[in-house]
Specification:
single chain; about 110 residues; mainly alpha; 3 helices; about 65% helix
Length: about 110
């Protein structure tokens, strides 16, 4: 993968972020005016697969560089940075989801 991931995923993060300027309940609604859990789960799974793809690309670049097939250290460093960035992004979304779950569990009715 030589291209950076679609930035459309970042737009979806605004609905999860605690600093969002929009109401997350107004986005991703189905016909019954409920937030679609399935769409959120699909988005998370795509993010995880994308992170795995970048991690695999790093492994390929490391093997190419170590075997002498590639002498371009620049490509290796770019692949590592992409993988690191997507991993940090995925972890941040996971942490936000866990924090939201804990907040819901601590609510007293």
């Amino acid at each position: 993968m030589n291209t950076i991931a679609s930035l459309a995923a970042i737009d979806n993060l605004e609905s999860v972020s605690r600093y969002s300027t929009t109401n997350p309940l107004q986005e991703n609604k189905d016909q019954t005016n409920h937030v679609s859990f399935e769409s959120l789960l699909d988005s998370a799974m795509k993010m995880i697969h994308e992170t795995e793809d970048y991690s695999n690309a790093v492994e390929e670049e490391v093997i190419k560089y170590a075997s002498g097939e590639s002498t371009n250290l620049h490509d290796l460093m770019i692949a590592q940075q992409k993988a690191n960035t997507t991993l940090q992004y995925t972890v941040a979304v996971k942490n936000t989801a866990v924090e939201a779950y804990r907040t819901l569990m601590n609510l007293q009715f």
